[in-house]
Specification:
Layout (H helix, E strand, L loop, with lengths): L7 H17 L3 H15 L5 H8 L3 E6 L2 E6 L17 H13 L5 H17 L7 H9 L2 H15 L20 E5 L2 E4 L8
Length: 196
């Protein structure tokens, strides 16, 4: 089996197996041999592989501009649980679905653009009642988030993207039964007298 056919879980298991031998190797020569074999087998970069083998199975904290982030290195059995609460809860989803249905299921691009204008109108006509924080969440939602939240509903309704552009070659004739007969005159196609 070549390394391109291996999935992520297989590579993680290989990393854990080689990490035990790499961390216990007494000499630099043995570590180098293990590293050569590991990089040839997995295809990992030579500078990334030693770091991966040294830190396999450990929780590492990486400092990013968004704040510290903990990751697990090459452990297929342990998972980090999400600690951040959901931004868009059930109430936001319920309101978004209702607006989407009222507007006849537009794409996320059009829905995002129309939300600031349509929410006050729907509230004024009694179709929608929103709290201030719920309204803010709806207005700050991105197009990608709208697509992600509405994806189950689209699948349920079996909606496909609807293009608004037309190909002129595929357009039908507005008067399919009329055909040109002669200098400015038209007649019915298929009729014996109207043929030239």
């Amino acid at each position: 089996m070549s390394r391109k056919e291996w999935d992520l879980m297989t590579r993680k298991k290989l990393t854990l197996a080689y990490a035990k031998h790499y961390q216990r190797a007494p000499s630099k020569r043995e570590k180098s041999q293990i590293l050569d074999e590991f990089t040839k087998l997995t295809g990992y970069n030579r500078s990334y592989a030693p770091w991966l083998l040294r830190h396999a199975g450990r929780r590492i904290t990486i400092h990013t501009p968004q704040g510290p982030r903990a990751i697990l290195v090459a452990d297929p059995h342990r998972r980090i649980k999400r600690k951040r609460p959901k931004t868009y809860d059930h109430e936001v989803l319920k309101s978004l679905r209702k607006i989407w249905a009222i507007l006849d299921c537009p794409c996320s691009l059009k829905l995002k653009a129309i939300l600031p204008k349509i929410i006050p109108k729907l509230e004024r006509h009694g179709e929608l009642t929103l709290k201030e924080d719920l309204r803010e969440k709806l207005l700050q939602m991105s197009r990608a988030t709208i697509d992600r939240l509405l994806a189950p509903e689209r699948r349920r309704l079996a909606l496909k993207p609807r293009a608004k552009t037309r190909n002129p070659a595929q357009e039908t004739d507005p008067h399919p039964y009329l055909c040109p007969v002669g200098r400015g005159r038209t007649g019915l196609c298929g009729g014996g007298s109207a043929q030239p």
